[in-house]
Amino acid sequence: MREKKDNKHTNAVSKGKERLFSLLNSNSEDEIALKQWKSVIRQMSIDGQWFKRHIGLMLLIVAGIIVYITCRYQAQQEIILEEQLKLELQDWKFKSLTRSSELTLRTRQSQIESALKNFNDSTLKVSTVSPYTITITQE
């Protein structure tokens, strides 16, 4: 009894393959091709043994595709965020450099002295004597 089922299954598969090959090799009209496609699809229905044997594999492939798409979307969003943060960091660096140079310009000794002269402040004067003399002795 098992052999009869196997023979029926092999015959059905071989007939389906023959029809598929004839469909691919034929140059007939669209209606004949459509009928042949319908018969091939009918033979490979969900009730068929092939689909029953491979449903787990198909579900695994679909799950893999879904996981791949979601991971790719998430990675793309992270790349976009990283680029935005790099641009913002570069902008802050330029602003910091500008502020630093402005502060340096305002705090130079000559600028401070000229500002004090403008306010007639006499407490700060330029020293004429050097503060320390460093002598180097060799032994």
Characterise this structure.
There is one protein chain. The protein has helices spanning 2-25, 30-43, 49-106, 109-118. The protein is an all-alpha fold and 139 residues long. The chain has two domains: 1-44, no CATH class; 54-114. Helix 1 runs antiparallel to helix 2 (30-43). It is rod-shaped, with a radius of gyration of 43 Å. The chain starts with a helix and ends in a 21-residue tail after the last helix. The mean pLDDT is 78.
Question: What's the short story on this structure?
Answer:
This protein is mainly α and 139 residues long.
Task: Walk me through the topology.
Blueprint: H1 2-25, H2 30-43, H3 49-106, H4 109-118
Helix pairs in contact: 1-2
Q: How would you sum up the major sheet? A: none
What number is the mean pLDDT? Answer: 78
List SSEs in N-to-C order.
HHHH
Rg, alpha carbons:
43 Å
Key phrases:
139 residues; mainly alpha
